Amino acid sequence: MRRTRFAIGAAVAAAMLSGLVPAAGAVAAPAAGAPSAMRAAEDPATGNEGMPDDGFENESESEQDDLAGTGTGTAATTPAPRASALAAAPVPGRAGDFKLVTGSDISGLVTKLDAALPKQGLTELMEQANRPAGWESACGTAGIYGSDLAVNHRVCWQSDDASSSEWVPQAITGVSDAQEDEDWGTSNSDPIAVAAYDAQNPGRSNYASGAGNCLASTTTDACNEKGIRVSFFNQATQMYRHVLLVWPYMNSKDHISFDALHAREGKCVGTVTASCAAQNGIHAGGMVWYGNYLYVADTANGMRVFDLRKIMDLNPDNKADVDDKTPDGLTSNVVDKRRIGRQNNVWYGYGYRYVMPQVATLKFSTAKNGGETGGNQCYATGRPKASYISLDRTDTDHMILGEYCNTNNGGTSPGRVGTYPMTALTAAVEGAPGTVADADLAYGLPTGATFNGEALWHKIQGVTRYEGKWYFHRSNATSNGRLLQATPGTVDGTSQLVGNAKTLQSSFGPEDLYLAHGRGDGFAPQLWSLSEHAPSVCGSCKREVYSYNMAEVISDFG
Length: 558
Hints:
Blueprint: H1 83-87, E1 100-102, H2 107-116, H3 122-127, E2 131-132, E3 134-135, E4 153-156, H4 159-163, E5 167-174, H5 175-178, E6 192-198, E7 228-234, E8 239-250, E9 256-260, E10 287-290, E11 293-298, E12 302-307, E13 312-313, E14 324-325, E15 331-333, E16 340-343, E17 346-349, E18 354-364, E19 388-392, E20 398-402, E21 416-421, H6 422-430, E22 436-437, E23 441-444, E24 450-451, E25 454-455, E26 460-466, E27 469-474, E28 480-491, E29 494-499, E30 504-508, E31 514-516, E32 526-530, E33 544-549, H7 550-557
Parallel strand pairs: 8-18, 15-17
Antiparallel strand pairs: 1-18, 1-22, 2-8, 3-4, 4-33, 5-6, 6-7, 7-8, 8-9, 10-11, 11-12, 12-18, 13-18, 14-15, 16-17, 19-20, 20-21, 21-23, 24-25, 26-27, 27-28, 28-29, 28-30, 31-32, 32-33
């Protein structure tokens, strides 16, 4: 065969998304008499952060948490849904609300970083994949899957990733999004990429754990807020590798450096206080790999963009105990997991060998609705939330962006979705600050149907569009979620999405969606997703990456 790929039969297994982890923007209040914290070496200093101001929002969105604002989330404690959540007509789709513009130009910073550090291509990175994944029956019990859909492919994580309370998987994309022919370079790895966020906030001002200074010898590497990492799976070797996403900046000594990906850099200098906000992470609820670019959803702001031609390698000789020389004449260290960027003339990446810097920002330009959002409330007007994204290649290439909303807590909308021509997004990424990428279509989600005594059409964690029909992953806390289908239609003269009355039981903690179309390799189209919850979240929970045969999905919806 032209390429090797794993074969799988029907099965059942996975678990990891929805949102039982602490809010990824939360900042712990300082305990009484909390000790002062030393500033980490070469952190940004007041007046010389060097960070381009993209105006990032720095607020908690409760990060797609089904239980936000509902106590324990049991039937006895969950408040009754508002009538409007069950009966209201769909909100209007306003494509203008989805407008994106190019943020600050950071190309000069990326060029400086590019010159300072060695690079590695994705093909070579796949050959260096170092963590064994479980495949098919090796993933064990399939108890997290529902009975409506036969799971075709199953992939499970190495044990520490499967149980980690720090890293929570959310988003998925792959080579089928990247290229029409599904053939990346000279590799036959057919990469699948999964993004996870660091759920252990707030990071360097973590008074709750008594760790104000994350460089102190008594702290663990989990003290730092590491932002987002992407795991690339090599389907040929059944191995995967983590890459840390980073943000380039000029440090207080006017040296190019990088930090982990955050919603905003806090300006904590000398003494950490509650007012400096420290570092708040982002959620990365969706991700699309298109050409050389990796688009990562930033809930409150839009999208962060990365370039796979800029993957930096901090350990080219593959010997972790030997500090490697870097092109700028310094050295790199992958043993110390508590440091990041250039510090005292040594490069660090929280122990990760590979880091990939952000190269562009796409920001919503529409004003934010003034309503409360702490319980995942959404609104019919104003900028949307970038809760999840996916790619539709069935006609002209489009990115789809949508909102996670919890109508149990109020708001005026169960969520909206919008689409962007990829030509417009690419032009914005490569254009000057202020370049506009317009959405060409938008819908409000269907309403009216119920599920477990609440609205069915909310708590959406992922979306894709295939041959004109829309598919949504609806979470259900630590129980089986649902796969939903909707079709564009006209109701009372208004164009809107009309939901299929049938729903299909999915995995515990279902997340983002990715469609591997199979045009390049001749395989049947696969609808991929993943589960977020670790076994520590519930007794039956489990993390896996999995797929359904798309033809079967279509048939099951009738």
